[in-house]
Amino acid sequence: METEAYLGLEDPACHSFSGKITPRTSTLYLPAGHTYVYLVYGMHHCLNVVCGDTTQPEAVLIRGVLFSPHLNPISDLENRFVEGAGLGPGKLCRALNIDRSHNRINLQISEELFIEEPTLSQSPQLKYETTPRIGIDYAGDAAHWPLRFVKKLI
Q1: Could you tell me the CATH number of the domain that includes residue 137?
Q2: Less Cβ around it within 10 Å: N or C end of the chain?
């Protein structure tokens, strides 16, 4: 799994940084656990999970998932998600058929889209890495903040 954190009003890389609430950024002001799906470069959808409270417009971008036969895989995705393939958030959304119609979904109650933690008996051995986020050079010093989190099989 690969994610990146975006820290709301204090983070120049976050869509809510200016504090201006627009139709696009209003999703970030929903309670934690809602999806924030937006289109980047006019062609790639990106899936985020809102994680702040309604006054802290923060989110976590889902950049990639870790495929493992131990984690009850979805067979259609088997050949698309290989550890280290660097698919990125746009290809992830394309493979999972996630688009703007999935924006504002409450992941705590949705049966259509949800995130599931594997049980301990299914969990492989993982290691964690923290690095700077990717593709946000416009954000100045914030581009170097260690807010990218990568889980890898050992």
Answers
A1: 3.10.300.10
A2: C
Task: Read off the DSSP letter of residue 3.
Answer: E
State the pLDDT at residue 84.
45
Q: What angle do CA 58, 128, 69 make, to 5 degrees?
A: 105
Instruction: Report the phi/psi class of residue 27: left, alpha or beta, with left for phi > 0 and alpha for psi in -120 to 50.
Output: alpha
Domain count, the chain: 1
The beta-strand segments (E) located in the chain are 2-6, 35-40, 44-50, 59-64, 126-131, 148-153
Nearest C-alpha neighbor of 115 from the set 13, 40, 32: 32
Q: Judge residue 78's burial from the number of C-beta atoms within 10 Å of its C-beta, 0-12 exposed, 13-18 middle, 19 or more buried.
A: exposed
Q: What are phi and psi of 144, to 5 degrees?
A: -100, 0
Given this model, what pLDDT does residue 71 score?
47
Q: Domain range holding 74?
A: 2-153
